[in-house]
Structure formats: structure tokens, C-alpha cells
Write a structure and sequence with these properties.
With 168 residues, the chain is an alpha+beta fold. Helix content is 29%, strand content 25%. The termini are far apart.
Amino acid sequence: MAIVYLSLGSNKGDRVGYIQQATSILDEIEGISLVRTSAFYESEPWECDTKNWFVNAMIEINTTLSPQDLLTTVNKVEAQLGRNREIEGHYGDRTLDIDIIFYDDEIVNDENLIIPHKFFHMRAFTLVPMLELAPNFVHPTLKKTVMQLHEELENPEMVFLYGTRVDV
């Protein structure tokens, strides 16, 4: 079984509810077993055409699915919970976004899937929840731990533990 880290985010509708539902659905899928979940965080939009803040979390799963099969599965879960990529665009408001961040220490560079996620190390909203789950995990291509990547982050977006943000 592969150990996989998935980033979940939502900035439209019941943000927390979408992430909770997605986590439950994923855990019920054959070949996927939920190991643990980070806390929920609120983060300002990163490279998005929106003013709506996101709720983000990181989950660790065990899976027997291949990286491509897992991508197909998470895309189906997104669609099941209202995600419409054609309407929402790549960086617009969305009910749910699930990204495969790491798949063991494998490197995948396909037309529709890049693992490790190419922006992971540039985003506080993925690094902060990952610090909870695996601060010493070594990025397969950058050869640095999650902790080191977090410490090196330049101009991080604001990330707050869910429910602690005071409007800025």
C-alpha cells in the first residue's frame, strides 16, 4: 500500500462540510483507507481570481490505487460534491479541490498529473497542515523536509487555524 497525502480545499458554500464529506467518501472507497487528518485552516486565496478565503486540510491515506486511478477517483469525488471545472475554471471559486501532493516518494510527470505537486513547496496552505502530519517527510525532488520547506517559504499567504481568523 502506498502512503499518500492529499490536500483538500474549499472556498464556496459549506467549506468545512465539503471537506468533511470528501474525507468520508474517500474512506469508503475500495482501495483507500484514511489514516489521519490535519486540523482545518483558513487561508487567503493564492494565485486565484477570488476574494473568498479557503478552508484547507491535509489527509494521509493508504491506497492500493495507482496514481492515475487515484486522480480519477478524487476527480469523481470533487464532481460528486458539486465541482464543475468547466464553469469554475482552474483558479476560481470552488466547492472542493483535491490535490495529490505526495504518493510515497514516487515522482510522476504525466500530461495530467505531476507528483509531487509542483506548487506544494510554495504554498503555506499546504505546508502548514502537512507540518502536522509529517514534518520530517522528505520531498522526493527537492530533498528537503516539510519543515525546511516551510522555513524557507517566501511571502507566505495568511493561514489561520479554522475559527481563529479575525477579519483583516
